[in-house]
Amino acid sequence: MAVFKPENVEEFYEIGEVLGSGHFAQVRKVHERATGTYWAGKFLKIRKNACSRLGLDRSRLEEEVDILHAIQHPNIITLKDVFESRAEVVLVLELVTGGELFDFIAEKENLLESEAIEFMEQILKGLGFMHSKNIVHFDLKPENIMLSDRVAPHPNIKLIDFGLAHRFHQGEEYRSSSGTPQYIAPEVIASDPLSTAADMWSIGVITFILLSGLSPFQGDTDDETLRNIIVMNYEFAAQYFSMTSSMAKDFIQKLLVKDPSERMTAEECLLHPWIKPITRTQVAKRNRSSINMKSFKKFNARRKWKMSYNMVWMCNRLVRLNLLCKGRSEADPLERQCESDVEDGESKPASLLRRRLSSSS
Ligand code: ATP
Asked: I need a surface site. Which of 95, 107, 125, 126 has the fewest CB within 10 A?
């Protein structure tokens, strides 16, 4: 069982600049007073009471912390410490300074498939390790794949954000409707029992985007995206995949499989000839093929724009929410207890609760 230290985090760490924000957390650079080392502090609000709609359940945070303790691997973010106060929990994490993998790639002029594969291999190794411990991430997407240091000759992948992750117990049936529409597996949408295969679907989607700059199931609305996933409406459009090897397409096809039990596992992916070529011809094919950089750059620019739009939308909502709550003075006692958490009528709870369908596609 993870230990949540009751001391004030600021006694041990000086709090610095904001590194990033998500739906549930603000992440800041922190400076350990005793050693001078820099870390990332992930500040998460705890749900105050049962009627609160903002913040996370403590039990959910306990699961995130337990999972992080269980998966120490070079390609997975490391958890150092956990602090808890009345209103928030602070996870002290290894500091990742290389930014998101997709941003790193988008800055390049071109990238061979063989170079992209170096990153895919690391992602799969981290994932394979998690899956061997019956832990599933359930929120794999470009924002959660970072690089520890972008100036290194072979930058190291770090998987982050285990806020939706789940550890399966023997014989357990687990269902969840959380995730980000573009990347979620059909069994999530169908509310079927889930497994490690759900992450492998997301790997299929991420690889598809990485190679073509096209998101395979993206519709104009989240509903349309989800419908495209259910009916498996995707294709390797020639104009986007003209530079892609047949091995890469085969790799994707073996992941974007509707039946989770038929999907490649992370271990199997690592042995697929696209990742681990055996013949000289296979090696040559990978070195001749490259990612569709023009289209990829466009995809990444749109993705970044949507992320900042979502963030501004969320900030505006929080400001309005605050004003709304301050305006209420005579609420009944229970309502007052909850008032700082109440959302207004036109709210989109999906953006504020840890249920992410339709929140950030
Ligand atoms: P989401 O909305 O995707 O659920 P979240 O609220 O769970 O996000 P994270 O995804 O863990 O929060 O972190 C938010 C952002 O903070 C990340 O996208 C990243 O930019 C930054 N970040 C997170 N962890 C680290 C880290 N260890 N080092 C540096 N930056 C980090």
From this structure: 107
**CA 214 to centroid of ligand 1, rounded, Å:** 24
| Ligand 1 site, CB within 6 A | 19-25, 27, 40, 42, 77, 93-96, 143-144, 160-161, 163
**CA distances for 25 relative to 21, 61, 73, angstroms:** 6, 11, 23
**208-228 pLDDT, tens digit each:** 999 999 999 999 999 999 999
Whether 357 has a pLDDT exceeding 90, the answer reads no
Q: Of ligand 1's atoms, which has the minimum distance to the CA of residue 163?
A: 7
Are the beta carbons of 58 and 46 closer than 8 angstroms? yes
Of all residues in the chain, the percent with pLDDT exceeding 70 is: 86
Q: State the angle between helix axes of 280-288 and 246-253 in degrees (0 to 180), rounded to the nearest 10.
A: 90
Examine the pLDDT at 320 and tell me if it is beyond 80: no
| Phi, psi angle pair for 153, to nearest 5° | -60, -35
